[in-house]
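Predict structure. Chain length: 329.
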Amino acid sequence: MFSLSLFSVLSSLLLFRSALSAPTCELRLASRSTPAPKGSADTPDAPRFVIYSDKFVSGVTGPPPVDQIKGYNVFALSFLLISGPADKAVEWTQLSDSDRASVKSDYSAAGISLIVSAFGATDAPTSSGADPSKTADTMAAWVKQFDLDGIDVDYEDFNAIDASDGKAEAWIATFTQQLRSQLPKGQFILSHAPVAPWFTVNDKFSAGAYRKVDETVGDLIDWYNVQFYNQGTTEYTTCDNLLNTAGGDWPGSALFEISGSGIDLNKLVIGKPGLSAGDANNGYIDPSTLAGCVEQAKGKGWNAGVMVWEFPDAASDWITTVRSQAFPV
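Prediction complete.
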């Protein structure tokens, strides 16, 4: 994900190789039970329309009013870090209990789940030696304490994945298993947000990357917010190389190529930046064109949904346009 917040920029300058919260892979990769636990919610059925935000918005603390994100059914407060909440996630903690309850009531009435996204580009949990089980316990407790509907795992530890020694895949699997033990399926959302190339059969990812994660714990993951951007200047910029044949630097990473390798098609949410500049380095498709891509995908049996980085750059108008041909609001 791409971040413009002061916190994320400073963190990146001090700790990380990039100011991106979106992965910069370039060529380097460059049924709810009764009674239900507080904060739980039925997992929304596909299609899922997901929007993230870590951006400061004047006059708004935490998530925006629901009328500004009409057309979405999941809002991800970004990010919950190993060190604690930041940006929109920390804003959520700054609201009073009554204000949070009011926001949750409004979101529930509008059919929008409110979740937190973990890690982003600021954190490299495997490389930094974080314990996956303890980290999962801490984050699950935070989700419950602040009455959220679940968590999204935006794991962007590229060095660990690139090492191809299996440690990243094992870390993600253990983390996911422990999260799910604390946040039961059907009561809490648990999504992941991998970059598209991590699903490819590729010598660069000989330990399996997200194919191995899906094989190991895919049944615990509700869906994948797949980041089809920041992977090269021309990758995923047309309906054909987004949906059918990726080619370029990451062959095999188009939507239907990923599903053809064994990943459940209807867990593959198409992720895109909201703006051509500022929300990602590349991979942008204008909303009207993307609407046609979404219609094509639906015509071939896909029903997973669309994700965007980020509010307020992409709000109700953006998703209304993107959904217009296949899933009208």
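Summary: The chain has eleven helices and nine strands.
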